[in-house]
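[09:14] KT: can someone run the structure on this one? pasting the chain below
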Amino acid sequence: MAKKNKKQQNLGPKSNFKRNAVISQIVKVFEKTPESEFTHKQICALIDAKDPASRQVVFDGLQNLSANKIIARSNHFTFKLAGDENSIQGIVHMTQRGAAFIIVDGREKDIFIAPQNVSQALNGDLVKVRVFKEGQQRDEGAIVSVVERERTQFVGTIQMQDRHALLIPDNHRTGVQVYISNEQLNGARNGEKALVKITVWPKSAEMPYGEVIAILGMPGSNDAEMLSILYSQGINPVFPDEVMSEAEHVPVDLDPQEIARRKDVRSILTFTIDPVDAKDFDDAISYEELGNGIIEIGVHIADVSHYVRPGSAMDKEALLRSNSVYLVDRVIPMLPEQLSNIACSLRPKEDKYAFSVMFKMKEDGEIISEWFGKTVIHSDRRFSYEQVQEILEGSPGDHDQILRKIDHIAKKYRAKRLKKGALSIESEEMRFQLDDKGFPIQVLIKTSKDAHKLIEEFMLLANRTIATSLSKPQKDRDKIPLVYRVHDQPDPEKMAMFAVFIEKFGHKIDLSDSRNIAKNLNSLFDSLREENEFSLVQTMAIRSMAKATYETENIGHYGLAFDYYSHFTSPIRRYADLVVHRILQTELTDKKHRYGSELSDVCKKISKNERKAAEAERESTKYFQTLFLHEHIGEEFIGTVSGIAEHGMFVRMKDNHCEGMVAMNQIPGDRFYFDADKYRIIGAKTKKEYNFGDTVKVRIFEVNPRKRQVDLELVL
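[09:31] RB: done, structure tokens below
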């Protein structure tokens, strides 16, 4: 025992210096005074490395940094910071454990940052990094400075201390604890949820200082939780005064002079098909028989570009938001309601400005010619999807013969797409029936039926037609800048994992020829359409695919099997469509395109905000799932193993479609562990296995709406 104490005494209090932590400290010393030179001894003194073991670690760190050209020897004894060309800028992606990966444009390998080297960087920040270790799979480095903050506002719960308060963030991966003086609480009380803005973060401080800028209410109320979700994603539910002022001056009545400049199609039968609770009607369909077996079908899109001018307050705010956000109990629109629900919305029995694509075609859908341009339309009828579906299934109704003719054409277009290699994905959406107080009383799964597919096919046709017209190379025409909606080919590793997944259900898929993956997936979906595992298999297939994004360089759309594709049909709720409207109108008129290199930045921004909106929508669904399941604690359900991880398995319950987790250490009967090679959970002694797709019985054990967490236990 005495020997151990002597060893501890010799090593001193700093003997547990870790190599990576020391390297980060050394780099920070040089970064603080970039022009200075330091000896090994000076560095040891500055970072308090007093004992021989720690000084040796510092010496090794200096050698490492010198070998990687992060610092340079001034002479035999002194070192200085190498030139700035050795630093790299990238975006921080934090992990739950406090480490980070730096994503750098144009660089194949990510840079791993250990927790002790993250410094004051937060998720999404643009940072400067110095790499001190290169590896085959990834490099390792340290963050030396924050170039630009992704956000400075965070949501969390106020926790009062003796003489100050702390903000405890809702999400520790994307947030940070913030010190708040009593003077900066602005009325916030202990336990309340609040939005806090960072005001300063001294280099010597462990946490930033901030002030409360909005009180969201006590945790547990729907309003407080939904606002927390929105603000956590950087989505502001309130429009600035300047934007609202512009919106209030938007006229509802149409200008006769503007009507005269447009193609007037108000006399043609026109109708909308939307969800029963929709208020923002982006698109309408028109139908006219021209004789000799020729018809004309028009796709009419709300002309948002007429009202929202480039550089206006509404335009800047629309870009900042990039899209509308659809939570379970509310919509956060991209544009103020004066536009999204009134002026632009193609409401029934009202004249509206539109941007239209008109197709002359034979009755079998063969297109003879197409026209696009500004129009004025009049919607004669508003249909819900349910009303149209009843008509398509044989019930009588308004314009039933016309709807069936259009549906017949839509089915032909869909079959043609699938034959060309498009993926046959049946969209599925979890919805909730809410009572008068906003509490979920039933879980509903909305699936895509023929009425949805009818509209989808004509929207796809319009989007593809516009993209092809603007993109296809033509003689004597320069390349037109455009926002493409692109979808890359599947990643082989992810598809291989998907193959392992479906093997658990007794199915196989041929992945040997990348050109036939979509065809083989469609065959798999067709064979499973009536099986219980269909939804789960399709969901896993979607997760195995690349994510569609907005880009200025076209690579086509794999999932749709289109060579050219853009978004044109939803400018009320997507900024990308508004930009495409402007580009098309410019090409139709003066051909003086205003967009240049900045269009790439627009694409990055709207793609990023699309992901934020999707995450907010997922969080909203998770929250309402937990509210619903909270009333069923202790009840037992049959479910399917829908996910497997090191910490347990996810189970999707059959009756309510909700998902929860059985923790690994809570699986009874053995000590279970995750077998990464065969992607299964297996018992150490009994060798009992749990695989994807297994049917199990579970009991709802605990539900935490604040954490969006459902804990299940197995019933054997």
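[09:33] KT: thanks! The CA atoms of residues 698 and 714 lie 5 Å apart.
[09:34] RB: yep, looked fine to me
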